[in-house]
Amino acid sequence: MPQDMPPVGGYGPVQYKRNLPAPSFRPGTLILGMGAVMIYGFYKLGQGIREQNELAREKMWSRIHLIPLLQAEEDRDLVRRHLADQAREKELLGDNFKVYNSDRYVRPTYAVTPSTTSK
């Protein structure tokens, strides 16, 4: 068995370069840069959240201010329906009957019924 000898072509090129770090930013500089970018991002996020809260508040108040208008529209519709019911009742029965034992106005309740009933 032959002795352990160096390879025939040698060990390859001799390393003569120094072990220097790559020409880049130092880790501390990178961390500071990333921190600055994150702080800016959180600042913009906070501004966006504030803007969303303001828009939600404005939307809520606009709906609150519309409630009387919507209520008046519903009341006009109820009066129109009530007068139409009274006219239809007078046409069919000849006289308006009091359903309740009181002169107080009772808001009608409407129930959706199917057009055809099953047997």
From TrEMBL:
Keywords tagged on the record: Electron transport, Membrane, Mitochondrion, Mitochondrion inner membrane, Respiratory chain, Transmembrane, Transmembrane helix, Transport
PANTHER family associated with the record: NADH DEHYDROGENASE [UBIQUINONE] 1 ALPHA SUBCOMPLEX SUBUNIT 13 (PTHR12966:SF0), NADH DEHYDROGENASE UBIQUINONE 1 ALPHA SUBCOMPLEX SUBUNIT 13 (PTHR12966)
Cited function: Complex I functions in the transfer of electrons from NADH to the respiratory chain. Accessory subunit of the mitochondrial membrane respiratory chain NADH dehydrogenase (Complex I), that is believed not to be involved in catalysis.
Membrane topology: Single-pass membrane protein
InterPro entries associated with the record: GRIM-19 (IPR009346)
Places the protein is found: Mitochondrion inner membrane
Family, similarity comment: Belongs to the complex I NDUFA13 subunit family.
GO cellular component, one term: respiratory chain complex I
Record-given protein name: NADH dehydrogenase [ubiquinone] 1 alpha subcomplex subunit 13
Record field: transmembrane: 25-43
